[in-house]
Design goal:
Strand order of the largest sheet: 1-2-3-4-5
Structural class: alpha+beta
Radius of gyration: 21 Å
Largest sheet: 5 strands, antiparallel
Shape: globular
Oligomer: single chain
Number of helices: 3
Strand content: 25-35%
Number of strands: 5
Number of domains: 1
Distance between the termini: 65 Å
Length: about 120
């Protein structure tokens, strides 16, 4: 009978380190406010900051797993302060966000993101 030989293997398997779940993306909970959302996005291990282009008043953060990006406006950007999220799902690009500032300026940022997605 080989069952006793399995006991040490089961004991070792119980001590083996568990694979860590991939970090979760921050939620887009507008009620938390611009400062809290921006800080969560910038600190998230599930995202990486994209080098900022010259004169661009936005910070882009891309998901390490792909398919999701966050945009945080900076002073001088249309609609600032605002946080936007762009997701690719089912062959479509979906945009959502939190317009804390001027809504017309927020629409400009949204249009800009849609033009980037179309490229």
């Amino acid at each position: 009978m080989r069952a006793p030989a399995l006991v040490p293997l089961l004991a070792l398997a119980a001590c083996a380190p568990k694979a860590e779940a991939p970090p979760h993306l921050p939620g887009l909970e507008c009620a938390r406010g611009f400062a809290a959302l921006s800080a969560d996005i910038a600190a998230s291990p599930a995202l990486r900051a994209v080098p900022k282009g010259p004169g661009e008043p936005y910070r882009f953060y891309l998901s390490n797993a792909g398919g999701t990006a966050f945009v945080i406006t900076e002073p001088g950007a249309p609609g600032h302060p605002a946080v936007l999220k762009q997701e690719k799902r089912g062959g479509q690009t979906l945009n959502s966000g939190c317009p804390f500032g001027d809504h017309a300026g927020y629409q400009q940022v949204l249009t800009y993101l849609q033009s980037l997605a179309a490229r």
